[in-house]
Design brief:
Elements lengths: L4 H9 L9 H9 L10 E4 L4 E3 L13 E4 L2 H6 L3 E2 L13 H18 L8 H5 L2 H8 L3 H12 L3 H18 L4 H7 L5 H11 L4 H5 L6 E9 L2 E7 L4 E7 L2 H11 L4 E4 L5 H11 L16 H10 L8 E2 H7 L6 H9 L12 E2 L12 H15 L17
Helix pairs in contact: 4-7, 4-8, 8-9, 15-16
Length: 396
């Protein structure tokens, strides 16, 4: 009796477990430039925005700047670009689940690229779970399950993100909104505009102009964590960056809004800045400030949950994922924490690994450690200034 291709692929996917899933094992492989780890994962460096294969001969990064991904497409989804030296996207993937996730990503990209003269909306129709499973010869259930286990999101969410990324690119290059939306694979302008607030933070026309017409003011002050940039619109805080160099902080702010009216102007920001500085000193534990940030719907859900974590407490990435109703989206939660533009206000530093140890932090592990120790001390929990993970503490 012949076995169908779908049953064969489903059998390959069951029970497979990719190696190098623990951060420490990955880090050791990177430290030793282990060629045997190539194809098991890639690592990305926050300070450079580049991802590499474990055996890459480039200069070794600092641990706090490194984040790991199961495959190149996941790293690119996180905003990183491939290393031109080690060409990590050309490595053969060894794990069946990771391989099938990569194939699905490529299939989605192919369908988005093959718009040509196709009727509007055909790209969306070809990206349904049923259409993808048919072209990949995998059952819809197994396809979605395998993809989510690797990427942390569904194929549809990945396709939406790629469409929106393509749209942003076209708008930034100067395409009119109508041309850009159809080129990106949106079937109609209504589909685009209903998603624009959560994905762009503004209308497509405003985004096309690089934020032209927006008025963003900012100030940079000294804090216990180094230089602190606070930027805002009239609606709320748009950025809160930590660093050592004023020019670097300013460049990060202008990168997203190249045509916005961005000016260094403390007027109107005094109260917010004073509140944030008081919070960092432990005088204002309940920080409840308005924000005006660009975010996807998923990012907003994660950031809202982070703001619910009490001062002096922590949660694990898996606890946050369960709290938002997406228990398998642990990696996606980690990415949302890493891309949080309003540190401290949205306390992503309060999210730790399952074992209670600290994971990566956009502004450096030393700052994350200092924040948690200071909050634990002022909240009266933990010992020797170290906050205990919430999952290890009993409620009063």
């Amino acid at each position: 009796m012949r076995t169908s291709p779908i049953r064969t692929r489903n059998a390959e996917l069951r029970g497979s477990a990719p190696p190098f899933r623990q951060g420490e094992a990955c880090w050791q492989a990177v430290q030793h430039r282990d060629r045997g780890a190539d194809g098991a994962f890639v690592y990305a460096v926050r300070s450079t925005g580049i991802y590499c294969r474990p055996s890459c001969p480039s200069r070794k990064p600092r641990r706090e700047q490194v984040v790991f991904f199961p495959l190149p497409e996941a790293a690119e989804q996180g905003g990183f670009r491939a290393c031109l030296r080690c060409r990590p996207q050309r490595v053969h993937l060894r794990d069946p689940k990771t391989e099938i996730a990569a194939r699905i990503c490529k299939e989605i990209e192919t369908k988005l690229e093959a718009r040509g003269d196709a009727p509007p909306g055909s790209a969306e129709a070809s990206l349904t779970l049923g259409a993808l499973s048919a072209s990949m010869q995998i059952s819809p259930y197994q396809l979605e399950r395998a993809f989510r286990s690797v990427m942390g999101i569904t194929p549809r969410q990945y396709a939406d993100a790629r469409r929106m990324r393509r749209l942003k690119s076209r708008l930034r290059k100067g395409d009119d909104v109508t041309t850009a939306l159809y080129d990106a694979g949106f079937g109609s302008s209504s589909r685009l505009y209903e998603r624009a607030p959560s994905h762009l933070g503004m209308t497509p026309a405003t985004y096309r102009r690089g934020g032209a017409g927006m008025k963003i003011r900012y100030t940079i002050v000294s804090s216990s964590l180094g230089r602190l940039l606070v930027a805002a619109t009239d609606r709320g805080i748009s950025a809160l960056y930590l660093g050592e160099s004023d020019p670097q902080l300013e460049a990060s702010l202008r990168k997203e809004y190249p045509r916005a009216e961005v000016r260094r102007d403390r007027s109107g920001l005094e109260t917010w800045v004073e509140t944030i500085l008081a919070h960092l000193k432990g005088h204002e534990p309940h920080l409840d400030l308005p924000t005006d940030v660009q975010a996807t719907a998923f990012q907003r859900r994660v950031w809202e949950e982070l703001r619910r974590i009490p001062y002096g407490a922590t949660k694990t990435y898996s606890e946050v994922a369960r709290a938002i109703g997406k228990p398998s989206a642990i990696r996606a939660v980690a990415r949302a924490c890493a891309t949080n533009p309003v540190s401290v206000v949205v306390p992503c530093h309060r999210v730790v690994r399952q074992d209670g140890n600290l994971a990566g932090y956009r502004w450096g592990l030393d700052r994350k450690r200092a924040l948690l120790a200071h909050e634990a001390l002022n909240a009266g929990v933990g010992k020797q200034g170290t906050a205990k993970p919430e999952h290890n503490r009993k409620a009063n």
